[in-house]
């Protein structure tokens, strides 16, 4: 069995509730607030060299799976992309990713196809919403949830360790924002002791949870780079930095974040069931003279980078094509993130970014097969002269 495209539609609804149906960066506080500074900044180039053997800005694609993984979108672009990502959803024994193929071998299949194409495999672990997006905090003390959760996390790192090659794991997008809102100091209880022998000495709270995920990675998959996810709607920028440092997320390898979970045009049109409920003002201004704009979003990410001290990975960037007409139709919604980001790479690098990986966050979005060749042309031009990281 192979996996299907995984939408995060339930996440969107919950995020909107937190942000009162406004664009996310209006919920994160002022960009000039006092953000704690990291004791030491980890250079993006060091991570790129570890993963790819060179120090250029990384570009990838994901959530593009075909029945034959050798034909996944990332491997049909012409140049060799740096990263290919896929979601891992659900829990073992409950129809989650460990059950898709015998003994969790779905991971082995994607690692093998990525390695065969010279690309670094990346997995987005998205298991916390297995019992519902509204229960991601409540389940933390529920043994019937946490026992299989820990088993699945351990299984993932054991499979990645068996490959003995570089890989990436992106931990639980959106979950850490809910966790931060529940407990700014990271002391909300989490069931760990008695469930994870490797982590019996850690505290039974969010600090211990983050530490245990890192320990499992370091123990079983030392070649795997691990990153937590920062959400713009979690709270003020300063609070997010403090929370990440409180739980030890600054001991990871990168911080992942997203600019928008699907094409702006889908939210503008409000005709697709995947895109109902959010403010339609989500198409970013490329001149950076009107809000919302790219400088605002990238500036927020730089503050996270500076405060936590880790490189930023832009994840699941929408693939839509720019248009002066709002909206669009299924598979052809407008967006301008591909256009802007490839044309302003120095801005991303200056903000502490290590790379960007593109992909659809829901069904019916623009893909590399419906974008008129925009992404393929952009990566072909980019890899002819990759941008070095400092």
Can you put this structure into words, describing what you see?
The protein is built from 13 helices and ten strands. 34% of the residues lie in helices and 13% in strands. The strands form two sheets. An eight-stranded parallel barrel has the order 1-2-3-4-5-6-7-10, surrounded by six helices. Strands 8-9 form a two-stranded antiparallel sheet. The model is unreliable at 1-31 (pLDDT under 50). With 390 residues, the chain is of the alpha/beta class.
Characterize the main sheet.
8 strands, parallel, barrel
What would the average pLDDT be, to the nearest integer? Answer: 92
Helix content: 25-40%
- Order of strands in the sheet with the most strands? 1-2-3-4-5-6-7-10
Task: Give the count of helical stretches.
Answer: 13
What's the β-strand tally? 10
- Beta fraction: 5-15%
Q: Regions with pLDDT < 50 over 5+ consecutive residues?
A: 1-31
Classification by helices and strands: alpha/beta
Succession of helices and strands: HHEEHHEHEHHEHEHHEEEHHEH
Instruction: Characterize the overall form.
Output: globular
Termini separation comes to 42 Å
Radius of gyration: 19 Å
């Amino acid at each position: 069995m192979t996996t299907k495209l995984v939408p995060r539609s339930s996440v969107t609804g919950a995020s909107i509730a937190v942000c009162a149906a406004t664009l996310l960066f209006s919920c994160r506080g002022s960009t000039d607030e006092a953000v704690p500074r990291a004791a030491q900044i980890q250079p993006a180039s060091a991570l790129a060299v570890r993963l790819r053997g060179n120090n250029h800005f990384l570009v990838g694609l994901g959530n593009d799976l075909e029945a034959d993984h050798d034909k996944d979108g990332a491997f049909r672009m012409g140049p060799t992309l740096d990263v290919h990502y896929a979601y891992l959803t659900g829990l073992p024994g409950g129809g989650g990713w460990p059950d898709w193929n015998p003994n969790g071998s779905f991971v082995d299949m994607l690692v093998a196809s990525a390695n065969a194409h010279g690309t670094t495999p990346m997995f987005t672990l998205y298991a916390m919403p297995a019992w519902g997006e509204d229960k991601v905090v409540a389940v933390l003390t529920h043994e019937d949830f946490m026992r299989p959760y820990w088993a699945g996390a351990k299984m993932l790192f054991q499979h990645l360790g068996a490959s003995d090659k570089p890989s990436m794991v992106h931990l639980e997008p959106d979950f850490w924002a809910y966790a931060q809102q529940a407990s700014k100091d990271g002391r909300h209880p989490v069931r760990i002791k008695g469930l994870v022998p490797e982590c019996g000495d850690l505290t039974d709270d969010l600090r211990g949870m983050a530490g245990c995920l890192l320990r499992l990675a370091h123990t079983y998959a030392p070649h795997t780079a691990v990153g937590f996810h920062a959400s713009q709607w979690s709270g003020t920028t300063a609070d997010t930095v403090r929370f990440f440092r409180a739980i030890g997320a600054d001991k990871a390898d990168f911080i992942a974040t997203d600019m928008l979970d699907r094409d702006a045009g889908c939210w503008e049109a409000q005709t697709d069931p995947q895109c109902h409920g959010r403010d339609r003002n989500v198409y970013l201004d490329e001149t950076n003279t009107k809000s919302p704009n790219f400088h605002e979003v990238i500036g927020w990410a730089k503050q996270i980078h500076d405060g936590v001290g880790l490189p930023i990975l832009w994840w699941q960037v929408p693939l839509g094509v720019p248009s002066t007409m709002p909206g669009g139709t299924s598979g052809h919604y407008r967006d301008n993130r591909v256009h802007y980001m490839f044309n302003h790479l120095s801005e991303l690098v200056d903000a502490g970014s290590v790379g960007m990986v593109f992909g659809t966050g829901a069904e019916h979005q623009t893909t590399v097969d419906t974008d008129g060749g925009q992404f393929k042309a952009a990566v072909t031009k980019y890899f002819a002269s990759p941008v070095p990281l400092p």
